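In this supplementary section we document a worked example of the pipeline. Step one takes a protein sequence of length 564 as its only input; no multiple sequence alignment statistics are reported here. Step two produces a three-dimensional model, which step three serialises into structure tokens for compact storage. The input and output of this example are shown verbatim.
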Amino acid sequence: MSSNTEFDAIIVGGGHNGLAAAAYLAKAGRAVLVLEKLEHPGGAAVSAHAFDGVDARLSRYSYLVSLLPRQIIEDLGLRIELARRRYSSYTPDPQDSSRGLLVDNEDQAATAASFAAVGASDGEFRAFEAFYAACRQLTEALWPTMTAPLLPRSEARSLAARAGAAEAWEAMIEHPIGQAISKELRSDLVRGVVLTDALIGTFARADDEDLQQNICFLYHLIGGGTGDWDVPVGGMGAVSGELERAARDAGATILTSAEVTAVRPGGVVDYRHGGQDRTATAPWVLANVAPAVLDRLRGRLPGQSPDRLPGRDAATAADTGTGVAAVPAVPATVNPNHHREGAQVKVNLLLKRLPRLRDGSVSPAAAFGGTFHINETWTQLDSAYLRAAAGSVPSPLPCEIYCHSLTDPSILSPELQAAGAQTLTVFGLHAPDRLVSPENNEDRRAELQSAVLASLNSVLAEPIEDLLLTDSAGRPCIETKTTLDIERAVGMPRGNIFHGGLDWPFVEDGEPLDTPARRWGVATDDPQILLCGSGARRGGAVSAIGGHNAAMAVLDSEPSLRDA
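The serialised model returned by step three reads:
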């Protein structure tokens, strides 16, 4: 079959957002076709056996859930269990790693004592709590708007003021977040713990005027209104698997190993499947790919291959005079925000057991039970940024560790569980895409992996390398993904985990909201093509919000079909 015009909507990309959109539309009676390039749906939100012959299902690219609304879980009947972590974070003091800051969600007194142990005053602990309480006033007010038509800035600001969050709005929305952090907190270590939420995946400094770090900070705190980041029981694949089930049960057609080659005007989608070139048409095309990928599929980036999108050669560009390499211009037909670089290295490890700490006052289970911050003081984060901007891998490299298996051992076989094995996911900050090219990727991957291991070992009482399990071929169970590796594996241009630059979850006053697509934040310049992934406004992370909002835009455009 070379052509099929029976579909009401074609979804390009079968990641979790595309599956969510498919489920909503199919439940509303739409004939939906999902085209996924990979051999399985789920995109980056999957679990995988990363090490040959080892029965451990790792959440390879994404790992925690905060932004997935309860509303979507209930609307689609998803059987998902999210486990709460008792500990928020543990941060060894890089000046004296025999002590560290443990933030215990269930023991305020213990947390206060931990502040004192790292030399922070009682006033610092109270300021830390007050800072997050103020932030929560704002996030609780804004969270319900994430799955509703967009508000203009002035209305969102008024909503915040009515919730008593006027000061938090000023701190988080109007001025660089670094100003508020440095004003309210004094400890270099405590400031760094707070700042990390503004920098994960975003190459920025605390006081950057474009406020990308502020938007990142808001999205890390807004989930559920509380900012809690939970562990998906069964791994991230359990989340995308349930979305796939909901879409299929509702009647959606999902094709895997179906690579879209072009998206043309008139709702025409060309793709290759089963060794044949095919074409499908529909009134609506929902793009669950990064906006930069959509630009290429629409012919707006002629001659660009997947690993040569604009900006890939930024590391060799002339210095701008600020220590930051210039990023090449993108074609005038596309939005430069679509091409912002990712800024992380991802490392997955499987250990015989948790490592011992230099800090004897904290058990490894507690330290690794939340987010383990390494070399992430305020000063270290800024120094790392400057070193990376100058073209070098930071030393020490700021890192964060998550141990899925402590909260959810089900991702390990019974044998691995009985042996005490644990998984670690390391997220290295300030490793921007400009450091990587197709020519140096292998060497840079090795350099970044060494930097991650060195950073970990700087706060552990034993070398992490000695604890690595081995696969069936005797190789250490460690895998490292650069931004280019991520781009090639799951189609995130420049390794940007947000699919491009982030946007506020509201629009500027005067911005047109005259169509359902614009009101839901999913519009492109073609009225038949909608964004339904992380590149949509209010997209990013494993949230299904982009998919939900694109589906709502379609249904609002033809309300008679909404309740079909």
